[in-house]
């Protein structure tokens, strides 16, 4: 009995921490008593039952923080935290959806309650503990630089991001959603290639994708036979998010040959072909022809993060089209019509 209890506790503890590698059902079954298929549609790729707006702004759900962990190194530009929240299975979601968070208190300007802030969910539908009762958020603490102080202005900071990054176990979080269908994965054809482009915390939905396809024993992983290609742009190596998980997933192709491919754009450590800083659009440009070919063959491309990356990427794709004698607007319109173009930027 003691041995069983210890193994259950170890499985549960490791599952709650980001970066724990491939999730094996045998270990988690001891802790949860469930398989990793109890939140699936029938068939698993059918999106007709995707949950939307289970909790609304006027009647939010109150979740509880399980843990908050800083996930960047000391030389990262800013602080980013991985926050696990208990929702008791009452606020189910699918990979690619977002939660709304309503920070406590009122606005200084008019005394009204704070408005809802949207955060992409950074876990699969099963949560980091595989029980289906938790969700994870990837949040960067928003601060504002003061030139006079030559430091962050303590009087100006992101209300919701600081609230979440300062939270601790047991703290209550008012939540709405889940919302959005734009970033869902197309799982009906398991051979579909996915191109995932992210800056900073825009990595969140892709963590859900990658865990579902490569790290958890789900029906989607059993079937996947495509290539999931992740482009992540951050300032430096210390700012890389979930790299240990990506490396584990990269070395663990699916039974049908599905694989993860990684490319990082480190703006303060690498230079582009023109000798300037290596931004995400520069890294994607290095593979412009291959990206174009994949899209022309039915791949889906996703963008999540700062909206400033979009003009550069679109200009690059337009240039490729011009070189091939293709009308860019018509080509892009075709991608959108076929639902291959997914954008969630801010």
Automatic annotation (TrEMBL):
Amino acids binding NADP(+): 120, 140, 201, 267-268, 277, 305-306, 344
Limits of the FAD-binding FR-type domain: 58-185
Keywords for this protein: FAD, Flavoprotein, NADP, Oxidoreductase, Signal
Signal peptide feature range: 1-15
SUPFAM superfamilies, A to Z: Ferredoxin reductase-like, C-terminal NADP-linked domain (SSF52343), Riboflavin synthase domain-like (SSF63380)
Cofactor dependency: FAD
Keyword hit for Translocase: no
InterPro entries reported in the protein's UniProt record: FAD-bd_FR_type, Flavoprot_Pyr_Nucl_cyt_Rdtase, FNR, FNR_nucleotide-bd, OxRdtase_FAD/NAD-bd, Riboflavin_synthase-like_b-brl
One Gene Ontology MF term: ferredoxin-NADP+ reductase activity
Residue intervals passing through the bilayer: none
EC number annotated for this UniProt entry: 1.18.1.2
Record-given protein name: ferredoxin--NADP(+) reductase
Organism for this UniProt entry: Triparma strigata
Species lineage: Eukaryota, Sar, Stramenopiles, Ochrophyta, Bolidophyceae
């Amino acid at each position: 009995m003691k041995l069983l209890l210890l193994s259950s506790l170890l499985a549960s503890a490791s599952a709650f921490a980001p970066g724990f590698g491939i999730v094996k059902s045998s270990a988690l079954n001891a802790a949860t008593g469930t398989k990793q298929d109890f939140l699936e549609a029938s068939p698993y790729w059918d999106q007709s039952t995707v949950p939307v707006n289970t909790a609304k702004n006027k009647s939010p759900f109150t979740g509880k923080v399980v843990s908050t962990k800083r996930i960047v190194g000391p030389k990262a530009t800013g602080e980013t935290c991985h926050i696990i929240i208990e929702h008791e299975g009452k606020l189910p979601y699918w990979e690619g959806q977002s939660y709304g968070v309503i920070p406590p208190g009122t606005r200084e300007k008019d005394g009204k309650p704070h408005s809802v802030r949207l955060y992409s969910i950074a876990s699969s539908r099963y949560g980091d503990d595989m029980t289906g009762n938790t969700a994870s958020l990837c949040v960067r603490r928003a601060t504002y630089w003061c030139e006079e102080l030559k430091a962050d202005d303590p009087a100006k900071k992101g209300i919701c991001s600081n609230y979440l990054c300062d939270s601790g176990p047991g703290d209550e979080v008012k939540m709405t959603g889940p919302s959005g269908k734009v970033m869902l994965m197309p799982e009906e054809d398991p051979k579909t290639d996915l191109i995932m482009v992210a800056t900073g915390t825009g990595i969140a939905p892709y963590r859900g994708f990658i865990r579902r396809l490569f790290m958890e024993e789900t029906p989607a992983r059993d079937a996947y036979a495509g290539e999931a290609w992740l482009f992540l742009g951050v300032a430096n190596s210390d700012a890389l998010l979930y790299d240990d998980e990506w490396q584990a997933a990269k070395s663990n192709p699916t039974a049908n040959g599905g694989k993860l491919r990684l490319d990082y754009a480190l703006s303060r450590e690498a230079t582009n072909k023109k000798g300037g800083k290596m931004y995400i659009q520069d890294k994607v440009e290095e593979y412009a022809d291959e990206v174009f070919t994949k899209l022309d063959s039915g791949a889906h491309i996703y963008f999540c993060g700062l909206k400033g990356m979009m003009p550069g990427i679109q200009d690059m794709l337009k240039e490729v089209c011009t070189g091939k004698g293709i009308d860019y607007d018509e080509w892009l319109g075709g991608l959108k019509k076929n639902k291959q173009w997914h954008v969630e930027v801010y």
